[in-house]
Amino acid sequence: MKKQILVLFGVACVALLSSCQQTPSLGAYDAYNRPASKPSNPNNVRVKVSTSNQMAYVMEGNKALLVMPISVGTASTPTPKGNFTIYSKQEYRRAQTHGYYVYGNGQYGQGYLRNKPAGTSFVGTPMPYWMEFKSAYGFHTGWMKDRPCTHGCIRMHHNVAPKFFAIVKTGTPVSISSSQPEDATIGRNIPRPPDASPLPDFPLDYMVTNKVYKRHKSPIFN
After folding, report:
1. DSSP 73
2. Which residues on neighbouring strands pair with residue 88, listed in sequence order?
3. How many Cα atoms are found within 13 Å in the side-chain-facing hemisphere of 37?
């Protein structure tokens, strides 16, 4: 009987350790980064997005300036495919339709602007380093997951987003398709950030401040 108990205890401990190892910490998520280079001629930069590989390639000619994992739209809310152009850049953008309700007593709620309770003010969801390529669709900082998870926008890790923002300019062409030729070469075996799904979201009183825009590492270029 004691032997059976010890065996069961051992199995439970192994399962617990395995579970702990699979759950990333915020520190591990925050440590993620990708190397990047600035272009010789910004006019020659183009962005290629592979939705199946969830990867973006920032190219200058045949040179990759930045290869970054991304999160794209789900099957029901897909990232649009086609050829586009970056036409708007906003480092401190907030969403206009969803966000946070601010009550007079210092409490906060979360939801859509159309459902805003009477007597509250509204602060949109932060979307740092916004770069719009189609109306209501853009690249921006957001939680990265290991599967398509957005409403169609393209999410970037917060340490990589300012590098992308610095390299890409208004007028940069963007090609989005299910796959790209680079998937089989420079897009292979690129490490992704830990899946953010198990991580708790930040407190609402933090999300309504501008601190959320500055949690990234200072961008360094090769």
Report:
1. B
2. 132
3. 11
Q: How far apart are CA 157 and CA 189, in angstroms?
A: 17
User: Hey, how many other C-beta atoms are within 10 angstroms of the C-beta on 134?
Assistant: 16
Q: What are the extents of the domains in the chain?
A: 41-93+128-187+194-214
Q: Are residues 70 and 115 in contact, defined by beta-carbon separation less than 8 angstroms?
A: no
Interval 166-186: pLDDT, tens: 999 999 999 999 999 999 999
Could you please report the per-residue DSSP string of 7-70? HHHHHHHHHHHHHHHHS--HHHHHT----B---S-GGGEEEEEETTTTEEEEEETTEEEEEEE-
Active-site residues, by number, are: 140, 153
Name the DSSP class of 161.
H
Tell me the C-alpha distance between 91 and 74, whole Å.
Answer: 25
Q: By C-alpha distance, which of 86, 89, 91 is closest to 172?
A: 86
Name which CATH class applies to 41-93+128-187+194-214. mainly beta
* Distant-in-sequence, close-in-space partners of 135: CB < 8 Å, separation ≥ 6: none
Which pTM does this prediction carry? 0.86
Specify whether the CB–CB gap between 138 and 131 falls below 8 A: yes
pLDDT at 83 over 90: yes
